[in-house]
Amino acid sequence: MSTTEESRAAAERAVRDSYGRLIALLASGTRDLALAEDCLADALERALRTWPDAGVPENPEGWLLTVARNRLRDVLASAARRTNAPLDAAAAARHDGPDLAALAERGETIPDRRLELLFACAHPAIDPGIRTPLMLQAVLGFDAARVAAAFDVEPAAMAQRLVRAKRKIRDAGIPFVLPGRADMPARTSAVLEAIYGAYALDWLDRHDDARTSIADETRWLAVLTATLLGTDPEAWGLAALLTLAQSRAPARSGDPWPPLDEQDTALWDAELIAEGESLLRRAAALARPGAGRPLGRFQLEAAIQSVHCDRRRTGVLARDALLALSRGLVQVAPTRGAVEALAAVEARGGR
Amino acid sequence: MRYTLLLQYPEMTADDLGPEALAEGMRAFDEYAEAFDAAGVLHGAEVLHSSSATTTVRLRDGQLFVQDGPFADTREQLGGIFTVEVDDLDAAIDWAGKAPSVGWGAVEVRPVATRFADGAWSGTAPVR
Fold first, then answer.
1. How far is CA A28 from CA A98, A181, A182, A336, in A?
2. At A209, is the pLDDT very low, low, confident or very high (cuts 50, 70, 90)?
3. Nearest C-alpha of chain A: how many angstroms from B88?
4. ipTM of the complex
């Protein structure tokens, strides 16, 4: 691999691994996602120009953050000069914040504000239909075309809607903060839906190359969200669902993938299965079933995954349990996927 | 950030309301304004006359058209304007949610882009 290819690969790795983290830090002061994206793109371009000669820095993420923040300051300063409008004191203080770039240069952990970013995207003042696409782009770095394809919308129309939503966040002053305790439950479901959406898109892409897949990042976000929310059973259910699904990633190779119940279970990741089971137990302990409420959608989907994963231990697929859970899921969330899955289970001899 | 809270609600006359409801409404608005003031975030509070007192003016082809009635003849009308200076939309929404009329009307929370004060404009361009 040439030096140029190495530097390109390092830059791309840094961006892919930490896109949302960098955007969250760059946008939290100005609340301007589009500007943050421009500044990050600028830093990346500079990295690709200078790293071949200067070498890849020790901390590529910190380097990108420093360059992007300097660019952000320049843009804000020139905008202030152009409009001859002094930045108000509060806004100026927000732009500076803690010296994150210096932290990064010293190799210290860069704070993770992705959850705040998720909640800003899921704010009730944002049109519900654009929240998920917005999160997929801002937090996980999906481009507008990929989001558009997943949502079956024209790319230009999706790009336009994303631009409008970002302007709304900036102009309406939607804060990049965690909601208060009282608002937290009400604002959680859009965040969970978006994480689930990211997982589903990644699944459809069918990456053979684990490094280009965002399934791990999505799973991590789900676990983090569940941890921070603490007592939301659906958040733990989603974390369990993504963890159990990811445990079978090693068996998902070839084209097409082998069907779930024909996969070689020896290839499945036992550690992830154990972690998924423990996440699901946590959800179940919090859900307090029997109070007249049906189990949530994500917990049901995780339980279905758990039945599949249990074939690794028992050697047999528990088709009756699968059928009961699939029927429950169709009742709670009659999506096309759930209906098709139930039909498939019924066709394969469940009763 | 500065926000203007636009209080929209169905208009009622003093007769419609009756003396008790009228007094109760005035007391509620008084408490609302006092709370704003105590928090140090209020930059103006104006409750408007009913739209039966409003006049709408348009200039078309150099001719001024003056007409009785509001810009939009809807059931709910703009009834009051509160201008506040708070950190973000969440804080503005909190205040909007406490408006006495929020239970029977709606409060529109509109960010202020730019304003003319002390002989100069400040803020951000309204279109960007």
1. 12, 20, 22, 37
2. very low
3. 5
4. 0.87
